[in-house]
Amino acid sequence: MIELKSAGELDAIGAAGAVVGSVLTALSRRAAVGVSPHELNEVAVDLIAEAGARPTFLGYHPASAPGPYPAVICASVNDAVVHAIPSRQPLRDGDLLSIDLAVHLDGWCADAAFSTVVGRPRAGDPDLIETTERALRAGIAAATPGARIGDIAHAIGSVGRAGGYGLLAHHGGHGVGRSMHEGPFVPNEGRRRRGPRLLPGMVLALEPMLIAGGRDDYRHDPDGWTLRTADGSRAAHAEHTIAITPDGPRVLTAGRPGAGTAPVEGRAGRRPGR
After folding, report:
1. What pLDDT, in 10s, does the model give residues 26-77?
2. Domain assignment of residue 1, yes or no
3. Whether 252 contacts 259, CB under 8 Å
4. How far apart are CA 144 and CA 12, in angstroms?
5. Distance, CA of 105 to CA of 48 (rounded, Å)
6. What's the pLDDT tens digit per position in 88-127?
7. How far is CA 2 from the centre of its chain?
8. φ, ψ of residue 76 in degrees (nearest 5)
9. Range of the domain at 196
10. Extended beta strands in 180-229, E state
11. Which member of 62, 172, 208, 269 has the lowest number of beta carbons within 10 Å of its beta carbon?
12. pLDDT of res. 259
């Protein structure tokens, strides 16, 4: 079932999206060499509480997982594509970090993600991240009333494949609303003019996940959550929650940081050099 939201409900999801965007921006500023993903998670805990929101990932337990998710962010490093539990291992110079966050505010959910390089980027990482962001922008541009889910999928996949990247198999975007995962599923590759028609009031999380090695397959970590590239190559993840409106797509997580490189050194909770 695909639920259409009213204008007021879109504003409510946008309020949740503003929290997501502000928290992710704060984390992007604090991510630095020597800071652990666990520290970033603790920063997110405090910021979400200050905003009066609820972390959606914490305690989330789909049937495919061995237990409830134990953190408020997903923090995936290098060959980890998505769903990685924040580690206590400090980030190293050149690490590629992807952070995913969803919150509920007043009963409504918003979901977003970004990737960045901590310190000095390795060859290929800036292009990987920029292409992932470009694929996301292409998907958003295709999300117009009267188009179909396949148009979004084709737009995202075309950018990723043109860059020579793999697309994480069997994963993509999804509807968002009262729950983090609602219908419809939004593939990251597909054929134009296929799938459900896009109608005003639909809310979707679009999230390209590109793999540098060009393969689509992945493996699970023993924790049952982390998905890693099968060939050990690096991956990037970008996500926005958007609404279909009569005037075109509306980004509901607009404050989310885009492609970029994090500071070289520092500690969570304070900016480098301060």
Report:
1. 999 999 999 999 999 999 999 999 999 999 999 999 998 999 999 999 999 9
2. no
3. no
4. 21
5. 10
6. 999 999 999 999 999 999 999 999 999 999 999 999 999 9
7. 21
8. -105, 130
9. 7-262
10. 182-187, 203-206, 209-211, 218-220, 227-229
11. 62
12. 79
